[in-house]
Amino acid sequence: MAGMADGRFADALRARIRGGVLPPGLFLDEHRTNFGRIFHREPGAVVLPAGTDDVAETIRFAREEGIPVTTRGAAHSQSQVGISDGGILIDMKAMGSILAVDGGEPAVEVEAGAIWREVLERTWKEGLVPPVLTNNLAVTVGGTLSTGGVGVASFRHGTQADHVLEAEVVTGAGEVRRCSRRSDAELYWAVLAGLGQCGVITRARLELRRARPRVRTHYLLYDSLDRFLEDASRVIDSGRFDYLESWCSPCPQGLRSGPEGRRPFARWFFPFHLSVEFEAGEEPRDEDLLRGLRPLERLHREDLPTPAFLRRLEPLFDLWKRGGTWEFAHPWMETILPMDRAAEYIRSVLADLPPQVTVGGHVLLWVSGGSVSRVPLFMRPEAAHVVGFGILPAVPHRWLDAFLPRLEAASDLSQEYGGKRYLSGYVRFDREGWKRHFGSRWEEFRRLKGKYDPDGLLNTGFPPLLAEAGESDSPPPPGPGEAEGPHDFGSPAWARAVAARINADPDYRAAGRGWGIGFNGDLVLQVDPDGDWKRSIRFLLRLRDGTCQGVDLLEEDARPAAGFVLRGPFPVWRGILEGRIRPMLALMTRRIQMEGSLSTLLRFQKATQVLVRATSGVPTRFSA
Question: Residue 5 burial (CB < 10 Å; 0-12/13-18/19+)?
Fold first, then answer.
């Protein structure tokens, strides 16, 4: 895209649409980043469309010129979404009209840039509400429909995308189409939770429901995660409540010693707010609603008008804005886990999560039935019940580089527990991570991208649906001088083969660049006896700046000055080398014990993954 950032195409585009086109120099600061404030990019032009025809004409112009197109709503996302590096940025907030409310169906027709708060204000005049509303109502309809859209009613009603009766879409070919479950259904399902990859939603007809005028909320507190999850399952199955809200709340306990010195830690509690709508004069029977639940304490009961309840978090967001944390970086990580595996994952993450993460943010926790959503691209585990967990911090920019590796490790670990990321957040998957996320739908998603965006210009790279030249998920070929094997695990021949295989891997040279520069990057791996494996093996990997300078087998009494020591039983190491156990999972669940800087290891976790992949490519014979 050389030369695009100067915006020379802005005048040509302005002549073809009714709306506005901003060239460089006239952009707002918000056009250069998103709510994440992690990535900053300079678009070549910003389009303020006057209607669907402008969106279509912009895409047709972009195809003629070979210019990428990015769409942006309220830009509440945190990855490289809603920002453009030298291409065309379409600001959909310019199309924010609420067109009509139909009290008979009931439904509301809106433009994609409409803000959910304004939609609610309009529909409530008829006593109607959308079945699902996000916690933050200052986001656009098109934005949440493109990611799914979840809220405190999702346990009953699925996502916001589940309630789209009809959508108007501009495809990547510049065609304007109306689609629904009954008409042009393939495109309909491709754009819902489709991240803007196959088309731009410009209008939507949304299902509404009639709501009662008041909401009663019971505030419960749990000190046991297991008991909370048991009660949450009971509540979901009972059908007693209209809204469920929960989170993880730290009680700071001071400092404790660990591998990285004395660090803050907390005891975690789990508030659970259960809400039901009711008519004035027909108050709910509280004991019937709460029967069978076992909280640590019932703290409070609150009655609110329904609109006030649906906007209950606005004072909190205002507080964050007044306190300045709204302007911090927001690398939010949300994942959806099968309930039967959620507790172990959540405990392992909370154990190392500093309590100050909740300053200007929070640690999200929600529960839902596993089959309430029908949207194919809204990925979630196949389970009767699922648990949403999110680390939603506000991070000062000077601490961002140190914090991101921990967040990425928690994200990777969630995949090991069968989790699926909610993609509005901060996501740094490699290609294999994206494939694991979409699973069996990956190739179908790629096919849809090719069909509806034939030039690959819409919202490129998130996810990377278009194949890149030379990419491969296979181990590298044998290195120079590497014997074919198989080699006995831990033998000198095996050690030489490991070093050769690592040095033959171009991915490791790239991912390991900088490792051992300014710190001791040597790594001792200790294999402890377990079961049929009766002996202990220790070897030293001398790693520096993307190369392996040798793999040395160590005598029993050798104590090299290594920067890192990883120790674990033989079955775990074998599982790692055979690809059955991911190294970060073993580390985070403490099946592998570590001495050294965890933050440094997390910062180079991609190098760790490639290192394991290369080592596992050595033909190995495991014999006691």
Answer: middle
Answer whether 96's CB lies under 8 Å from 143's CB.
no
CATH number of 106-210+440-452: 3.30.465.10
User: Which CATH code for domain 487-621?
Assistant: 3.30.1050.10
Beta 164-171 vs 176-179: how paired, if at all? antiparallel
Residue range 214-282+290-423, CATH number: 3.40.462.10
The one-letter amino acid at 286: D
pTM above 0.90, yes or no: no
Strand 564-569: give its sheet, edge to edge: 547-553, 537-544, 523-528, 564-569, 593-595
Of 370, 299, 297, 378, the residue nearest 339 (C-alpha): 370
Task: Provide the sign of the torsion angle of the four alpha carbons 74, 76, 82, 83, taken in this order.
Answer: positive
Burial environment of residue 251 by CB neighbours within 10 A (0 to 12, 13 to 18, 19 or more): exposed
One-letter amino acid for residue 350 of the chain: L
Whether the upstream peptide bond of residue 307 has omega within 30° of 0, thus cis, is no
Give the span between the Cα atoms of 58 and 172, in whole angstroms: 10
Q: Is the dihedral of CA 416, 514, 461, 97 positive or negative?
A: positive
Reported as type and span, the H/E element at residue 524 is strand 523-528
Q: Which fold has domain 4-94?
A: 3.30.43
Q: Do 487-621 and 106-210+440-452 fall under one CATH topology?
A: no
Q: Which letter, b or e, does each residue of 190-203 get, where b requires 16 or more Cβ atoms within 10 Å of its Cβ?
A: bbbbbbbbbbbbbb
> CA Rg, the chain, in Å?
26
CA distance 377 to 161: 10
Q: What is the enclosing helix (H) or strand (E) of 586?
A: helix 583-588
**Mean pLDDT for each consecutive 10-residue tract of the chain (624 residues)?**
56 95 91 95 96 98 96 94 94 98 97 99 98 98 98 98 99 98 98 98 99 99 98 96 98 85 92 98 95 98 98 96 96 97 94 91 96 97 97 95 88 92 92 91 96 96 70 51 71 89 90 91 91 86 93 86 91 87 78 84 81 87 78
Answer for the pair 526, 566: CB distance below 8 angstroms, yes or no.
yes
Domain range annotation of the chain = 4-94, 106-210+440-452, 214-282+290-423, 487-621
